[in-house]
Amino acid sequence: MARRARTWLAAVLLWTPCSCGDPPNGPGNGGLLLAQGRYSVTLIGFDLSADPRIQVCSPVGVPPNGKNMQTTVDLRQESAELVARSTAGAGDLVIRLGAAGTTSGSPIPVQGSATGTALWSDARFPAVDLLVRFDSPGVVSGDLTRAASFVTGYITGTIVFSTSSGAASTCPMVLWTLQPVR
Question: Could you tell me which of 3, 29, 121, 162 has the fewest CB atoms within 10 Å of its CB?
């Protein structure tokens, strides 16, 4: 009985709509119904990979604390795109998103661009001396899972992870995620 109650509660929580803000319903976003508001962005560079599709960073082991950025953005509908901009004090990162074709299923493919710099700003985690800079506009691709308001994918371009001491590594590809801050 308790197991059935937990299963039912989990199902209700998964299907309960988020009250994180108003969904952007503008034309041209291909049905990317993400609530506007505060989101967390994760950017991860790879030093090693057994997967030949993953492009690794150079040099390996730099910065010494790794290549895992946590930053915060505000997501808004702007014209025909969803645009995530760094929150105050978190750099000038801009991620623009649109649907990558039409689909009625889940996940929904997304595409866009990333420019600017991101500073560590996610208060849920201890601060790290790390900056991520897009030296060329990053090409964003990924998948939106609407039920969870979660996007995951890759950004390709010239992406530099660095510290205040000058330790830097350039990555041709990073893993990225976008999810609401609750």
Answer: 3
Q: 5 lies in a domain?
A: no
- Listed residue (140, 139, 120, 115) closest to 130, CA to CA: 120
The number of folded domains in the chain is 1
Residue 127 lies in a domain: yes
Mean predicted confidence (pLDDT) in 1-18: 33
Q: Tell me: the pLDDT tens digits for 144-160?
A: 987 778 999 999 999 99
